[in-house]
Amino acid sequence: MTDFTELPDLAARNLGGGVVAANDEFFAERENLIKPEPAVFTPHTFGHKGQVYDGWETRRRRDHGHDWATVRLGTPGVIRGVVVDTAFFTGNYPEACSVEAASVAGYPSPEELAAADWVEVVPRSPLAGDTRNVFAATSGQRFTHVRLNIFPDGGVARLRVHGEVLPDPRWFAGIPLDLAALQNGGVVTDCSNRFYSAPNNLLLPGQARVMGEGWETARRRGGGNDWVNVRLVEEGIVRQVEIDTTHFKGNAPGWFRLTGDGGTELLPRTRLQPDTRHVYRVPPTAPVREIRVDVYPDGGFARLRVYGDLTAGGRERVGLRWYDALPATRAAAVLTEDAGLAQAAALRVAAARPLLDGAGVERALAAAGVDDDTAIAVRTLLTGR
């Protein structure tokens, strides 16, 4: 993908994002920033505080300083770009903005977040009113939170934080793993048609509430069929697949087929029912990195789940991608907290990044003088081996 706006919105409410704090929301509520749907506007709709806006709007500042809102990403990841959408804000939009990001473990309070180490990913930049203001991000690190700063005050309709999901593989152990889930690092790479709705909706957490929260194609009038390609979190063995057509009644596909890398058939052409959650066991096959769902001839469905297990190589790669992208302080901290590494040695290993592969881990451990028992704990943490 060359256009970062095609990447998932890591901050979206339907991915689990939340606006945890703002210094002011006098005219319009901060939570509006991360609604997944576009902003709307109804002229001459006034409440007790003036015209009602579908966005976040602060009062007019009478002192120096600026306003801000802090957003918990729905899933941590590497931020590739940000859209600050000032839709319908014309005489009351901010003149400039900047975006900072932080990586914080657990469930920090707003006060704890205020004291975090914040990294500027979008420098202070001018804004235009009633416009999707698009900014590329400047850091390749993995973050959990962002802070939108507006100068000096005003209103923003939506904040989109596009990037690559980078999961923490420590959470994969001992639970059924959805290899395709957006929150685990799966992503749609291509599809035949997205006329009615976006294909990445298939990989969102939870159940679709309405038909519009799934993926639906236009009616096919020629030959062929529609399809969607998904890159899994990493290479894995697929054990079970769920195709959920809930809410799709007169427009569900009649059949589907599931294939993996190189066209390897995982499930043959199989009949589907409307408005139904279908679950299928997948016979043992070779590991796959990508899957393709063909639907016949067209139509839509709500959710796709691909349950399975990472291969040893897949677990190593996802673990090292995660570790190499952590901010330096977090990278050292996870080694002391989870592997018992002394702080000095943990800092040396973190400074040796990118580790890239198992050989890189061994070199970093040897250079830091880590003893054998602790080295085993570090290897298990980072590579699963």
UniProtKB/TrEMBL annotation:
Catalytic activity, EC: 3.5.3.4
Allantoicase domain boundaries: 16-165, 185-309
Pfam family membership, one: Allantoicase
Pathway the protein contributes to: Nitrogen metabolism; (S)-allantoin degradation; (S)-ureidoglycolate from allantoate (aminidohydrolase route): step 1/1
Enzyme class name: hydrolase
Keywords for this protein: Hydrolase, Purine metabolism
Keyword Heme among UniProt keywords: no
Catalytic activity: allantoate + H2O = (S)-ureidoglycolate + urea
Family: Belongs to the allantoicase family.
Xref: PANTHER family: ALLANTOICASE, INACTIVE ALLANTOICASE-RELATED
HAMAP family, per database record: Allantoicase (MF_00813)
Name of the featured protein: Probable allantoicase
Species assigned in the record: Actinomadura vinacea
